[in-house]
Design the sequence.
């Protein structure tokens, strides 16, 4: 639930009075021109930056969930989020799996790697990946904890047709079984959003 | 509570391991601080000569070399996260305290590695001798904890600024000055004596500084990391 969210950089208003409520099994598309604050809103919703005003509350059985308990329940894919390029894909995923205390995930990670056509490239350093492969690896990272809430910022950027099809499958599944929040300018993505928020500068 | 503490230690350990693995692949920080310290040591030995300086001056030079060498590489642990856009990824998966403790441990080990190489080299090149080896090592150990803890929290602050390098040294100097003063004073005393009582003031000072700076880092890091 977002209540009266607002963000200002100095005197400049990015957006204000953003209020919405979503429940499990719903999805939201945030739309707006470049620079309107879609990414800023996504970053606030997943706790990466603080809002200048208002609040974001996640609840389960009418009890609010503390941010520190949300680490394993959130997944984010965005252009500003990178994995460690000096490490291999396997080293990255192993690190994130251990730090999030995820157990018995190796089969699930293998399945995701296969789904995103990265099988066989696990031991390559991420710096040797193409931009499309990096984007696919970000999806593996975001989905490895089977998140209840999935944030996607420009979900299909840098992906080929096959990658886009896989992402749409993921979005459809997430919309059914969890919560999907995306920021996009691509009209094709909008069919996966039950609700839309338009941000205008 | 015990489980929480254990998980915090584990997460800090994983971050330390990740940073260590990255460092072994790039060797950026290690190369920076080692090369800086060796070049400074050679420059100092050429400019003042091996025998002309008193042990007191040499004690000061040792700590100045250690301080500025540390300044040349210890900020990288956070600067790398910001510049490579991995800071947000880390924020998304773990709590700030684990990040602070993991990065502090990494900087501490890096500083110990530097000292393992540069201190014997300094003793050999500058013809420097201490009577109280145990006292000297205690001062060096406590000083390193203070230096790396202070450098870690300051590195996190400056990593978001544009003039990172200059800002790091300028901000660190006044904050870490007590370590420098106590370290130099303790080393001077260790040159002449091996009586612990003679350096009790310096040891207390370094210990107190380390406790204060680690506690301050622990409490403040959440704000620094999330702003």
Sequence:
């Amino acid at each position: 639930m977002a209540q009266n969210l607002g963000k200002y950089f100095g005197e400049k208003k990015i957006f204000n009075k953003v209020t919405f409520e979503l429940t499990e099994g719903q999805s939201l598309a945030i739309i707006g021109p470049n620079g309107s604050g879609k990414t800023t809103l996504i970053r606030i919703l997943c706790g990466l930056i603080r809002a200048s005003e208002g609040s974001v509350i996640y609840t389960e059985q009418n009890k609010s969930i503390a941010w520190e308990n949300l680490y394993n329940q959130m997944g984010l894919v965005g252009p500003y989020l990178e994995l460690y390029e000096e490490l291999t894909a396997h080293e990255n995923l192993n690190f994130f799996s251990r730090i999030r205390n995820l157990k018995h995930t190796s089969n699930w990670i293998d399945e995701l790697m296969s789904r995103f056509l990265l099988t066989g490239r696990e031991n390559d350093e991420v710096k040797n990946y193409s931009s499309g492969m990096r984007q696919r690896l970000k999806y593996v990272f975001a989905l490895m904890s089977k998140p209840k809430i999935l944030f996607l910022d420009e979900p299909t950027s840098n992906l080929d047709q096959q990658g886009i099809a896989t992402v749409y499958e993921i979005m459809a599944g997430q919309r059914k079984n969890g919560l999907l929040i995306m920021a996009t300018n691509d009209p094709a993505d909008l069919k996966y959003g039950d609700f839309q928020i338009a941000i205008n500068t | 509570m015990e489980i929480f503490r254990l998980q915090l230690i584990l997460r800090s350990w994983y971050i330390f391991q990740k940073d260590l693995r990255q460092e072994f692949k790039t060797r950026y920080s290690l190369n920076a601080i080692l090369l800086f310290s060796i070049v400074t040591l050679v420059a100092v030995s050429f400019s003042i000569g091996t025998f002309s300086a008193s042990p007191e001056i040499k004690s000061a030079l040792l700590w100045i070399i250690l301080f500025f060498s540390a300044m040349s590489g210890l900020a990288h642990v956070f600067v790398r996260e910001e510049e490579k856009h991995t800071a947000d990824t880390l924020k998304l998966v773990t709590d700030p305290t684990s990040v602070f403790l993991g990065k502090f441990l990494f900087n501490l080990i890096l500083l110990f590695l530097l000292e393992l190489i540069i201190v014997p080299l300094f003793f050999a090149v500058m013809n420097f001798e201490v009577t109280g080896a145990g006292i000297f090592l205690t001062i060096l150990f406590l000083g390193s904890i203070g230096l790396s803890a202070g450098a870690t929290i300051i590195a996190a602050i400056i990593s978001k600024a544009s003039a990172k390098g200059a800002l790091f040294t300028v901000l660190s100097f006044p904050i870490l000055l007590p370590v420098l003063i106590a370290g130099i004073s303790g080393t001077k005393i260790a040159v002449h004596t091996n009586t612990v009582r003679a350096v009790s003031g310096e040891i207390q000072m370094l210990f107190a500084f380390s406790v204060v700076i680690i506690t301050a880092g622990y409490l403040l890091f959440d704000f620094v990391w999330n702003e």
